[in-house]
């Protein structure tokens, strides 16, 4: 692990209800949010037998409807076995900011209550077929990072139409959860949020986790973020409620 992946693992453990040892790393669990992948997953940070790891995932996550394994270093050695078990690979980038980060006059801080409400509403709008309980869990789970978080949004039409989260801990800051409602995209809100968040973290090393196979990484590069690492994740779902992050 490097400094950033070690920080991510430490944050996952800090917001977990339970941390268990598994081959190559740990499993984090939270009984209040069983449908959230980020709160119920395995985190691998050292070499291990992939079959033993897959077996551990079955045991540790047996009471939830998904399986998720994140490899903070490497991951190629796990791919073949996990693919044979039905896992789908996800490639992530760690991108660090090397450039200016101006504050924005259109960005406002959200209260925790407003952030929970906004997250719940956005999940309901994005996934109308999902049940109310799932959307509630996914909106409410942000409370687990509240001690280290600043929640930001762009208000318009009497609601927050774009938002992002900033987590600051031990001299490192992560910009996370950048989202703009579809009808408000193309107005520069995401850029304003990301840079405003970075400016608020002045004095900290600022990074974000981007999908290696999706277009936002290009936007982040234009804002001054540079790839400094990679994370490989493997997920398998078991039923319609197992698809949530």
Describe this structure in words.
- With 245 residues, the protein is an alpha+beta fold.
- It folds into two domains: 3-93 and 231-242, no CATH class; 97-228, Aminopeptidase (3-Layer(aba) Sandwich), CATH 3.40.630.30.
- It has helices at residues 3-14, 50-60, 76-84, 112-126, 132-140, 189-200, 216-222, and strands at 18-22, 25-29, 41-44, 66-71, 88-97, 108-110, 149-156, 159-169, 172-180, 205-211, 225-237.
- The protein has an eleven-stranded mixed beta sheet, sandwiched between helices.
- The radius of gyration is 18 Å and the shape is globular.
- Residues 239-245 have low confidence and may be disordered.
Number of strands: 11
Helix-strand string = HEEEHEHEEHHEEEHEHE
Report the end-to-end length measured between terminal Cα atoms: 23 Å
Structural class: alpha+beta
Q: What would you call the shape?
A: globular
Count of alpha and pi helical runs = 7
| Average pLDDT over all residues | 95
Helicity range? 25-40%
CATH architecture of the largest domain, please?
3-Layer(aba) Sandwich
Secondary structure topology:
Blueprint: H1 3-14, E1 18-22, E2 25-29, E3 41-44, H2 50-60, E4 66-71, H3 76-84, E5 88-97, E6 108-110, H4 112-126, H5 132-140, E7 149-156, E8 159-169, E9 172-180, H6 189-200, E10 205-211, H7 216-222, E11 225-237
Parallel strand pairs: 3-4, 9-10
Antiparallel strand pairs: 1-2, 2-3, 4-11, 5-10, 5-11, 6-7, 7-8, 8-9
Helix pairs in contact: 4-5
């Amino acid at each position: 692990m490097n400094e950033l992946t070690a920080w991510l693992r430490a944050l996952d453990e800090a917001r977990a209800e339970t941390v268990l040892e598994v081959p190559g790393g740990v499993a984090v669990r939270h009984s209040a949010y069983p449908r959230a992948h980020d709160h119920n997953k395995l985190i691998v940070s050292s070499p291990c037998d992939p079959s033993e790891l897959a077996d551990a995932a079955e045991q540790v996550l047996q009471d939830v409807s998904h399986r998720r394994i994140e490899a903070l270093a490497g991951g190629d050695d796990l791919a073949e076995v996990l693919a044979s078990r039905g896992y789908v690979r996800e490639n992530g980038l760690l991108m660090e900011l090397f450039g200016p980060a101006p504050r924005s006059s259109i960005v406002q801080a959200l209260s925790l209550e407003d952030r929970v409400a906004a997250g719940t509403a956005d999940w309901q709008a994005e996934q109308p077929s999902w049940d109310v309980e799932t959307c509630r869990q996914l909106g409410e789970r942000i409370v687990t990072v509240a001690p280290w978080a600043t929640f930001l949004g762009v208000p318009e039409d009497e609601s927050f139409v774009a938002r992002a989260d900033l987590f600051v801990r031990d001299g490192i800051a992560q910009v996370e959860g950048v989202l703009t409602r579809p009808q408000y995209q193309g107005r520069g809100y995401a850029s304003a949020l990301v840079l405003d968040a970075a400016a608020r973290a002045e004095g900290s090393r600022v990074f974000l986790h981007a999908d290696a196979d999706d277009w936002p990484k290009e936007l982040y590069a234009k804002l001054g973020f540079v790839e400094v690492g990679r994370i490989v994740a493997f997920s398998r779902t078991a039923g319609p409620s197992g698809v949530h992050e």
